[in-house]
Amino acid sequence: MARPVKRTVDYFPHDTHAASSKTMYILDAKFGNNGYAFWFKLLELLGSTADHVYDCRNPAEWGFLVAKMRMDEDSVERILDTLAELDAIDPELWKYRIIWSQNFVDRLADVYAKRKQDPPVRPNPAQLCATAGVFGPETRPETELSGQPGPETPQSKGKESKGTTAAASVSGVVSTTEAGSSEPDRNELAAAEPDKRMDQSSSRGQAIEHSGHGQVLSYMAKRLRMLPTQISGRDLADLQQDCARHGPDVVMRAIDLACEAQLRKGKHKRGDPALGPDIRSYQFCREFLNDAKELVEEEEAIRRDREIGARRRAETQALIDELLAAGGG
C-alpha cells in the first residue's frame, strides 16, 4: 500500500533575530506580546495544515483559529489585517479569508526538496471567486486551495466520471462520488453532502446555531474530530450550562486538558493540532473543568499584574519626564 503524501511540516525555522524584523517590530508596537505570540502561533498552524493554506471561510476553522489565539475575534481580525498590510500574509488572498504566507512556504523549500516533492503553490484567486461554498478540512478541494492536484488516496485512484456537474467544471473539482472511489469513508460522504446532513438534524443544528456559544462549539468539534451536528443533546445542554457557569475560556481549556490527557495515554499521534482524543462526547472533558478554572484564573491574575505593572511604569516615566522638563525650563 502506497504511503500518503505528506503536505505538512513538523517544524519550521525560528531565527534568533526574528523579533527585530519589520513585521515583528510593528506587531509588538501595535499589539504588544500578543502580536508576537499570534505570529508564531499562526506559523505553527500553517505548518501543520495541508499545503499551508488556512481557509477562514469555514466557520469551524475560523472558530479554531480564534480559540487558539486566546483573543477575541476583533483582535484576531485586526492582527490579520495588519499582517496583510505588511505582506506577511498574502493581502489579495486575505480578502477571500484565505491565509497564505509565501515567505513561510519559501523557507520550507529544503524540506520539500528532500521529500522530492514540489512545494505548495499559491492558491488561485480566480478559482476562489468561482466557488461560493465553504470547505472544511475534509471537503476542501486541494485543486482549489493549493492550485495543484491533491495527493492520490493510497486505496484507489478511481476513474473520472463522464458526467461532471457544471459547478465541478467551473472550479476544476471532481467530487468523491464523481471520482468513483471504491468505498468512500462514511464521514467523507457526510461532509460531501452537508445539506442532507443538516436536513436530518435540523433541530439540533438550529439549537447549536442559536446557542450563543458558537465559538466553543466549533472549538470542541475541531478538537474532538466531530461535525457540529454530531454533538448530542446532552452534550449541548451541558456545554451551554458550563459556559454560563464558568465562562467559554474555562470550557475550552478543559477541552484542551482532556485532549492532552488522551495524548499522554497514547490515544492519538502528535503533529496534528486538529486531532483530538478518540472520544465523541463532551462528558470526558467535564472532568477537567476544575483544573481548567484554576489555570484560567492564574493566567488572568498574571495578566492583571502585568497590566498594573505596565501602568505604574508608564506613570513613573511620565513623572520623570515632567520633572526633567521642569528642571530644563
Tell me about this structure.
- The protein is mainly α.
- The protein has two domains: 1-147, no CATH class; 231-329, no CATH class.
- It has 19 helices and two strands.
- It has helices at residues 22-31, 33-47, 59-69, 73-85, 91-94, 102-106, 109-114, 125-130, 142-145, 166-171, 176-179, 186-192, 194-200, 202-209, 214-223, 233-246, 248-264, 283-286, 289-328, and strands spanning 54-55, 98-99.
- Strands 1-2 form a two-stranded antiparallel sheet.
- Helix 1 (22-31) crosses helix 2 (33-47), helix 15 (214-223) runs parallel beside helix 17 (248-264) and helix 16 (233-246) crosses helix 17 (248-264).
- The longest helix has 40 residues, at 289-328.
- The radius of gyration is 23 Å and the shape is globular.
Mean pLDDT: 72
Radius of gyration: 23 Å
> What about the largest sheet?
2 strands, antiparallel
Q: Distance between the terminal alpha carbons, to the nearest Å?
A: 83 Å
Helix content: 55-70%
Number of domains: 2
What structural category characterises the helix and strand content? mainly alpha
Overall 3D geometry? globular
Helix-strand string = HHEHHHEHHHHHHHHHHHHHH
Q: Strand-residue fraction?
A: under 5%
Unreliable stretches (pLDDT < 50, length at least 5) are 132-211, 267-278
Query: Would you report the number of β strands?
Result: 2
> Strand order, biggest sheet?
1-2
Q: How many distinct helices?
A: 19
